[in-house]
From TrEMBL:
Gene name, Swiss-Prot/TrEMBL: ADK
Keywords: ATP-binding, Kinase, Magnesium, Nucleotide-binding, Nucleus, Purine salvage, Transferase
Localization (cell): Nucleus
Organism the protein comes from: Lates calcarifer (Barramundi)
Protein name, entry field: Adenosine kinase
Main EC class the enzyme belongs to: transferase
Cofactor(s) the record lists: Mg(2+)
GO molecular function: adenosine kinase activity; ATP binding
């Protein structure tokens, strides 16, 4: 039994229905996909989702980066149920109903903004070997509105109940104003605000949005490719992951009661953490490749484990 109370963990992001399949290199090449990358769907990817379903054996999962992490944290907490709260936008359709059902199954207190202009978002997870290439069609997830959901009294009360807030960087493309409202609330009330770099394109093409939020970030997550992109855009002039972690930690911060923690994963290589005045590394347990199903959601699960700890160790 966890000591965490209901709604003490808050997440906001892009709820997506994952369509997952093992594909071949020709399929990746056809749609100019990289083996271990995350992109937003463009016009050239319109046929991808249909071809994936027709050509390969697919599995459907309730997904989206933030929702995945909240679900994992809740799974680790077990009881009480609904420690994890999640906000996001879905369509009034079959996929939206599936997502609501899956959130309920996972004991997550999901409060979706439902609209009928766009269908529920999807994400193609194209798996090759140990890698996965993600192509997200945000659709409804892109329609989240601060004034129509986050600002509502009954919803904002759930944010006020939270002690830990987590948002994946993907949401920077959707509602910067919503992120900033939550981030400022966290800083003003000395709550833990966590952000994930999420993908290289976030660091590159949404740099301005990212850097508006960065001063409020208490815990920053990322992987080695995202760290490299972030370092390049910030003119850190280094490719060393440890140095990148230290430089990211030293960026300006609003809530000076908490020194920023930076956690950067590197696949099978050591995870790097900048905490206090130390840079620590943590070896990753070796796994027989035969036991690896795929790596889709691995980073989200890692973060879920970390924010689970945050719910127990609020001073983290």
């Amino acid at each position: 039994m966890s000591t965490a109370s209901p709604n003490s963990l808050f997440g906001m992001g892009n709820p997506l229905l994952d369509i997952s399949a093992v594909v071949d290199k020709d399929f990746l090449d056809k749609y100019t996909l990289k083996p271990n990358d995350q992109i937003l769907a463009e016009d050239k990817h319109k046929a991808l989702f249909e071809e994936l379903v027709k050509k390969f054996k697919v599995e459907y999962h309730a997904g989206g980066a933030t929702q995945n992490s909240i679900k994992i944290a809740q799974w680790m907490i077990q009881e009480p149920h609904k420690v994890g709260t999640f906000f996001g936008c879905i369509g009034k359709d079959k996929f939206g109903e599936i997502l609501k059902h899956k959130a309920e199954e996972a004991h997550v207190d999901a409060h979706y903004y439902e609209q009928d202009e766009e269908p529920t978002g999807t994400c193609a997870a194209c798996i090759t070997g140990d890698n996965r290439s993600l192509v997200a069609n945000l659709a409804a997830a892109n329609c989240y509105k601060k004034d129509k959901h986050l600002d509502l009294e009954e919803n904002w009360k759930l944010v006020e109940k939270a002690k830990v807030c987590y948002i994946a960087g993907f949401f920077l493309t959707v509602s910067l104003e919503s992120i900033l409202k939550v981030a400022k609330h966290a800083a003003e009330n000395n709550k833990l605000f966590c952000l994930n770099l999420s993908a290289p394109f976030i660091c590159q093409f949404f740099k301005d949005n990212l850097m508006q939020v960065m001063p409020y970030v208490d815990v920053l997550f990322g992987n080695e490719t995202e760290a490299a992109a972030f370092a390049k855009e910030q003119d850190f002039e280094t490719n060393d992951v440890k140095e990148i972690a230290k430089k990211a930690q030293a960026l300006p911060k609003v809530n000076t009661k908490r020194q920023r923690i930076v956690v950067l994963t590197q696949g099978k290589d050591d995870t790097v953490m900048a905490m206090g005045d130390k840079i620590e590394t943590f070896p990753v347990l070796k796994i027989d490749p035969k036991n690896i199903v795929d790596t889709n959601g691995a980073g989200d699960a890692f973060v879920g484990g970390k924010i689970f700890l945050c719910c127990h160790l609020i001073r983290f």
